[in-house]
Amino acid sequence: MEKIQQLTVENVLLKAQLAGKYAPVNLSQVVRAVLSAPYAALLDYDEDTDELDRRSVERAIKRLAENEPTLFTTTKKDDDPNGRKVDETMLKQALDLLGIKK
What we know:
Layout: H1 2-18, E1 23-24, H2 27-34, H3 54-67, E2 72-73, H4 88-98
Antiparallel strand pairs: 1-2
């Protein structure tokens, strides 16, 4: 049961990361934080299946991000994953050299 909870939280975190909402510095650390007090109190379970409700996991992650911003990095869509600003001119030149039309 505990492993299913961890995987559910990881799944929600990864989907949020792909959507550009949150970028955890250390995924397993954020999962542990969500599943521990006081954030575990925010989690709701389905009465029939006893599985975590995804919306409650999203609320817990949101609260965690507000209270512990150091657990998440702030990246914008025009930045690369390493946090460096992408130079549009240099990117266009590189794509032109490779023959890729943007």
